[in-house]
Amino acid sequence: MPGLASRLGRANAGHHVDNSRLNDLIGAMAECRDREAFAALFRHYAPRLKAFGMRQGVDAGTAEELAQETMLSVWRKADTFDRCRANASTWIFTIFRNKRIDMLRRESRPEADLDSVAELASDASGADDDYHAARTGEIIREAMIGLPEEQVEVLKKAFFEDKPHSAIAEELNLPLGTVKSRIRLALSRLRLALPEGQL
Amino acid sequence: MINHHPSIELLFDYAAGATPEPVALVVATHAALCSECAARIGGIEAVGGALLEIVEPVDVSEDALDSVMMRLDEPQPAALARVSAVDAETAAVVPEPLLPYIARGLAHLAWKSAGRMIEEARLPLTGKGFKAALMRLKPGAAMPVHTHRGREFTLVLAGGYKDEGNQFLRGDFDFKDPSHEHQPVVDTDGPCLCLIVLDAPVKLTGGFGRLVNPFLRI
């Protein structure tokens, strides 16, 4: 299996993952209800969303339905997309995640209203820059290239398989502490972890 | 200033979508008050976005795009019942993610006395095996000494309490599991309002508590 760096690199070269273009397409949908922009986004994301769903143990038919429902929500919610806050892939990931919870678990998804949290952040001195930096998909993406494969593996398992840490530990036949420390290491490399002592 | 946060593992599970609704509710309500944790959740979501880009695509059926295109003009499904006007106390104390669970405001919840110093109102959450409730505690109230068969998530919404030498105030997140035996004591300068989520009954360990506090069962 090729390493993450080469996969990210290949994705860049081969599939033209050009985030600013994807961001623009969502902008065109929001402003002009541009159906061509929607079709272009669908062609890019639907096969990835279907794959993501299948990696999470959903059968192909349901995964495709999940991909379609996610893209329909992307169309409907386009005007709430804020490129300063998250890039296109991150935003679409969150819509997919919530759809999955809605469709498969029939639960709703409590979420903080990010506008009011952003205000909270700008009130605290100096927190504003960090707040936006942490949300920038590009920074995370670049930092992920530098992660060891074993750390990427636990991140992927946690995302793809919708499992709590204890189940991942069982599956990889690793002590829970090892899974936890790998995830912590990965997240601190990505500068997302809490400072020591607050964990 | 918020001093007690969810563990990074819990934030991770929340951002990845692996937490059941009652637990997600406590994390989301904390994040509504804590810009640091909101930023960490955003960063973990960006990891999800990056993984979405590198996943090997799987072809969708040929008519998948057309069938979605035909639905673009469908009327939007009605948004979930938005909370209309709530009273000033509720608006000041209850963060946005929690509002939909509180119907018409704090005063209208079905508060039940759970002892002289404690009132409790269940939240309408269907999460199997979970109890989610708001607890209102009088100033100086001491909970019975107890431990847990499962996990307990607490978020302070108003007032404060001390537990195991730590002070908990509005926005602080408290997690306890069977390894903790504790006795939270509410600050004397005012009442305390908390959101609590339990996934198993508490176990009263003090002899006296065991006799007088059956109300803590879930």
Overall geometry of chain A: globular
Shape of chain B: globular
End-to-end separation of chain B: 32 Å
Count, helices of chain A = 11
Q: Mind summarizing the main beta sheet of chain A?
A: none
CATH superfamily of chain B: Jelly Rolls
Q: Tell me the number of helical segments of chain B per DSSP (H or I, 4 or more residues long).
A: 6
Write down the domain tally of chain B: 1
Low-confidence region ranges of chain B: 207-218
Q: Mean pLDDT of chain A, as a whole number?
A: 78
The helix/strand order of chain A is HHHHHHHHHHH
Reading the helices and strands of chain B in chain order gives HHHHHEEEEEEEEEEEEH
What would the keywords be for this entry?
heterodimer; A: 199 residues; mainly alpha; 11 helices; globular; disordered C terminus; B: 218 residues; alpha+beta; Jelly Rolls; six-stranded antiparallel β-sheet; three-stranded antiparallel β-sheet; 6 helices; 12 strands; 23% strand
Task: Write a structural description.
The complex is a heterodimer of chains A (199) and B (218). Chain A has 199 residues and is an all-alpha fold. Chain A has helices at 4-14, 19-32, 35-55, 60-77, 88-105, 114-123, 127-135, 137-145, 149-161, 165-172, 176-189. Chain A contains 11 helices and no strands. In chain A, helix 2 packs across helix 3 (35-55), helix 3 runs antiparallel to helix 4 (60-77) and helix 9 (149-161) crosses helix 11. Chain B is built from 6 helices and 12 strands. Chain B has a single domain (1-58, 67-218), classed as Sandwich (Jelly Rolls). Mean pLDDT of chain B is 86; it is low at 207-218. In chain B, helix 1 crosses helix 3 and helix 2 (21-33) packs across helix 3 (35-54). In chain B, the strands form 3 sheets. A 6-stranded antiparallel beta sheet of chain B has the order 1-2-3-11-5-8, with helices on one face. Helix content of chain B is 28%, strand content 23%. Chain B is of the alpha+beta class. Chain B starts with 7 loop residues before the first helix and ends in a 6-residue tail after the last helix. The chains are: A mainly alpha (199), B alpha+beta (218). Chains A and B meet through helix 1, helix 3, helix 4, helix 5 and helix 6 of A and helix 1, helix 2, helix 3 and helix 4 of B.
